[in-house]
Amino acid sequence: MTPIQMVDLKTQYLHIKNEVDAAMLEVLDSAAFINGRPVQLFAEEMSAYLGVKHTIPCANGTDALQIAMMALGLEPGDEVITPSFTYIATTEVVALLRLKPVFVDVDPKTFCMDPQSLRNAITPKTKAIVPVHLYGHAAPMKEIMEIAHEFGLYVIEDTAQAIGSDYIYPDGDRKKVATIGHIGCTSFFPSKNLGCYGDGGAIFTNDDVLADKMRMIANHGQKVRYYHEMVGCNSRLDTIQAAVLRIKLKHLDEYNAARQRAADVYDELFKDHKHIATPFRASWTKHVFHQYTLTLDGYNDVAEVRNGLTQFLAQHQIPSMIYYPVPSHRQNMFAAYGSSAFDLPVTDWLTDRVVSLPMHTELKNETQSFIAEKVLEYLNKF
Questions:
Q1: Residues 324-360: tens digit of each pLDDT
Q2: Which of 44, 84, 134, 177 would give a disulfide with 327, using CB separation of 3.0 to 4.6 Å?
Q3: pLDDT attached to residue 42
Q4: Are 112 and 234 in a shared domain?
Q5: What CATH number did the domain enclosing 204 receive?
Q6: Residue partners of 364: CB distance under 8 A and separation at least 6
Q7: Is the pLDDT of residue 207 over 90?
């Protein structure tokens, strides 16, 4: 058996090698390494895929979130509500801009923002909500948008782990995640469902005014060169990365379908174990499985069992990850905000119980069977 990886980017590359190599050589030949034609073409193709008016490419997903918040004109001290159970980038930019992060809990099944926890956290200082489509599962956007409209709040979708996923309304209408809130953000980090071969990100909106402002912010606050109308930053998607993304965007639905098939195989392998909860799929979304995450429960010391499992798998050359071992509200970087006082029981409960297994487009059934065999071998000791 070939070495097992959390994400097999090399084999995926080999399937599109000729296209990618040709596209990269074309960029090298043009020497247009910054803002070359592929950047504009990718933005147009990404907008068409998502069904959104504007795509603003940028340097990475963290910049995308920062630029989005800057464009909304939020003032220091304004409150931004985010889940604590997410990657630190979601919450880090809030503090970076001298805004106040307010952490809310998540649903124990979907791992996404809980609407009731959101509603309970709103104060007169609340200005924006950042729902995260975690692990590839969409947040409950209908309820979140209704709350946002009720209180006059902005919504910035963090779609770094769910690009290509559909949100399905009760009437059957569908929208791509990242196009439902006022602004959508994503990362093109190599391991993402749509990943480039370095860093990259993008911002999405249907609002012409916001789009114009975000383009300026990402380009040193200028529309015309050397005439800077506002404080901005330098955040660009390299031409080579855009060339790669143009090719991979054509395969995104295929890649997501491969992840869904792999998830179905895992589900079947783990379905009979009473201490394992396989990933939930809500009726309002098409899960795209950026991660395949198990939730363990029913053990006297579940965190010890979970951590022992990861060590046992490593001994058998099976990688696994805990996303995330320390939630945002328990990170030292937010101590000044009194974050440890937030009562987020579901987040704390999940932190001790989740474990993610290898998930990627090239995953083979026999590999998954071996992984499941070792997971069950360890857990069946207890």
A1: 999 999 999 999 988 888 899 999 999 999 999 999 9
A2: 84
A3: 98
A4: yes
A5: 3.40.640.10
A6: none
A7: yes
Q: Domain of residue 260: give its range.
A: 252-379
Q: Does 241 share its domain with 165? A: yes
Give this prediction's pTM.
0.97
Across all residues in the chain, what is the average pLDDT? 97
What's the DSSP call for residue 132?
Answer: B
Are 85 and 173 within one domain?
yes
DSSP letter, residue 53: S
Q: Give the tokens for residue 141.
A: 């956007």
- Grouping H, G, I as helix, E, B as strand and the rest as coil, residue 270 is helix
pLDDT, tens digit, 9 for 90 and up, residues 63-98: 999 999 999 999 999 999 999 999 999 999 999 999
DSSP string, 245-292: HHHHHTTHHHHHHHHHHHHHHHHHHHTT-TTEEPPP--TTB----SSE
Backbone φ and ψ for 178, nearest 5 degrees, come out as 90, -10
Query: What values do phi and psi take at 361, rounded to 5?
Result: -75, -15
**Residues 333, 338, 343, CA angle at the centre, nearest 5°?**
110
In angstroms, rounded to a whole number, what is the distance separating the alpha carbons of residues 139 and 111? Answer: 8
Write out the DSSP string of 116-129: HHHHHH--TTEEEE
Amino acid at 222: Q
Q: Tell me the CA distances in angstroms from 59 to 15, 54, 352, one per residue in order.
A: 26, 17, 33
Same domain, 185 and 307: no
Per DSSP, the three-state class of 144 is: helix
pLDDT digits (tens, 9 = 90+) for 37-53: 999 999 999 999 999 99
Q: Of 196, 194, 202, which Cα lies nearest the Cα of 57? A: 202
List phi, psi (to 5°) of 357. -105, 165
Angle between helices 239-249 and 252-270 (to 10 degrees): 60
Per-residue pLDDT reduced to its tens digit, 263-289:
999 999 999 999 999 999 999 999 999
Distance of alpha carbon 202 from alpha carbon 130, whole angstroms: 16
The answer to whether residue 288 is domain-embedded is yes
Instruction: Please report whether residue 3 resides in a domain.
Output: no
